[in-house]
Structures are given as C-alpha cells and as structure tokens.
Amino acid sequence: MLGVDLGGLIRTILFLLFATLTAVLAAVIGPTYDNLLVPELRPEALYPGIGAAGADPGNFLAPAAHFSTYLLANVVDPAITLVGLGIALAYLSKALVVRWSAALDGLLPRLILAVIGANFTVPIAGAILGVAGGLYPVVAGWDGGAWQQWVHLAGWGELSYSWDNGALAFVLALVEFAAVFALLLAVGLRDALLAVLIVVLPILTLLWPFRPLSPLARRAWFLFGELAFLPCVLIIPLELAVNSPTPILLVGYLGAAVGSPYLVSLAGTHLVAFGFPSGGATVQSGAQRGLAVAPQGASTSFGPAMEAVRSRGATGRAAWGATRVAGSAAAPAAAPLAVAEVLGHAGLHLARHLRGSSTTTGPPSGWRPIRGGGAG
Fold it and tell me: 198 and 339: one domain?
C-alpha cells in the first residue's frame, strides 16, 4: 500500500478551508466599506447645509431644522411667557421669602441668555457644523483620499496571508468585518443624534437658567460639538491604515477608529452611553467570535469524514475523537484538547497492546525452565 501522510493532508485541507472562508469575508468587507461606509463619510453627507430648503433628499438636517423651528414657535415661545410670569411672581414674593433672594438675583440674566440661545439654536448649530465641515475635508484629503478604497487598506495580500496562517487569518478577517460594520453603525448613529439634538436643543436651552436642570443643556451642547467634530478624528486611523504592512496592524487601526468617540469625549460627555460602540469591546467580541467559529467550522466540515474512518482501527478513532473535542471549544483551547484526545487514544491502545502480550503463562521460547534444588 502507498503511504499517505494523513497529517499533511489534513493541514492542506484546513488551509484550503480557512483560505476560502477568508476570501469570502474579504469579498463582503470590500463592498461594505467602499459602497456603504465611504459614501457616509463624504463631506457633503456628513455636513449638509442646515438651512437648505429641502432640495437634496440626502440632507438629513433640513427636516430637523424645520421641526426645530416648529417647536420653537409652538412650544418654546409660549413656555418663555409662562416662565417669565413665574419669575415675576417670584420677584414679587422676594421680600417675603428672604432665603430666595440670592437665587433670584442671578435668575433673570440667565433667563435672558437662555431665551436668546433658544431662539438662535439653529444658527448657532449651523455655525458649529460650518467650522467642523470646513476642517473635515482638509483632514480627509490627506494622501489624495486613498482611504476611500478598501484595497488600499487591506491590499491583495489577504489571500496569501490566509494560506500561510489558516485559522488566524480567518479570525482577523472576521474582526475586520465587525469593526467595519461598527464604524458604519457609528456614523449613522452620529447623523441621527445630530438631527435629534437640533430639535431638542431649544427646549433644553430654555431649561438652563434653573440650576437643577442646567446640566441637561450643557451636556446637550457638549454632545452636539463632539458629534460635529467626531468625523475629523475618526478618519485619521483610516488614513493611517492605508498600505498597512500586516493585517494585525490594520485591525488595530480599525479598532482605533471604532474607539474614536472616546478621544472626543474629553468635554464631559460619554458617547458610549448614547449607543456608540466601544473599540476594545468590538475587537474583543470579533476575536472571540472568530476563535469560536474557526474550530466549529472545521469540526462541522470534517465530521462526516471522521465518522467514516471511526471504525478503521485506533488511528481512525483517535482522529474522530480529536475532531469532535476540537469543535467543542474555542481556538486557543481546541488545540490542547485535540492533542490530549489523540494522546489518550494512543495511551489506551498501548495499554491494551501491553496487556495482550502479558496474558501468555509459559516462558518465552528458547529459555530453559528453572528447576527447584534437590538431590538427583
């Protein structure tokens, strides 16, 4: 019979399997990045004209500005009248309640500033977006905008890397997909929050004179500024990821891009509390998912073949047991479990062999029997 290197054959099949899975993921990541994320990161998509009169259907800020004007005329302005009436009554009773005098002295100037800020919320927000929108194209235009094509980030080397490293490349590709998808959701969430804040900022600004409620207005304006400048920070890791020498460094840059809300939350607002994904959590969950999927996919693929060789001696039983055990754990733990299973089967086979050889009662052939001493 011709000798077959079973270990080499299994390694070749595994490399082919993981190379195919990596190529499938790469085929999904590229269009997701090029056709979804890059259009969302265009300057005209991130910073549309807040005062534009609904000509562009992609202008998500125009309806928010109209809605804000509607609430300003129908909710904020009547509330200003009621608040002013309440403050007037409080000043009339100031002589009766002496302990309120210190608080009421600074309330009227704060109310005047709040009324002015509430009525000019849309122009102020437009000015902030204008400054951020003027800075973003300068940052995003570095290196001719090479970050706008996924092939410039990942290159064509993912296939050769997957062939050389197998399951590790599949794990990294899965983490890349998770990071790109998290970036896609983060940009969409940023646009939605900007539109919502433009609507509610007039109401929150009107609450600023009252000290128990003033943190709401401050945090809302801080959050609006952070969201306006967030793309200027998020785009930097993508630009640095161009022509990354290794997929591991590319994963690091993508994790930094996903974690960019932390870098702009120095003003006091924790953006993750509003649903932004955490860079470390995204990379960790993607890596854990990849490490769990890789051995399970291999076990599922080779399960029928191992069942077929299960009844063909000790080697077949060892291969079947190693495949079954490896699929029950994540990648770091799958390898020692599979090795332990193979060693266990080998030890059991050796013990049975030694036990079978020790069942003979007579002496080995060629040996003279030992007689007891005595006179002949």
Answer: no
Same domain membership, residue 309 and residue 241: no
Most confident by average pLDDT, 165-169, 297-301, 346-350: 165-169
Residue 370 in any domain: the answer is no
Q: How does pLDDT run across 29-55, given as a tens digit for each residue?
A: 888 898 999 999 999 889 988 765 555
Are 236 and 147 a contacting pair, CB within 8 Å?
no
What pTM, to 2 d.p., does this model score?
0.65
Across the range 358-376, mean pLDDT stands at 50
Question: In the predicted model, what is the mean pLDDT of the chain?
Answer: 74
User: Residue 88's domain spans which residues?
Assistant: 9-277
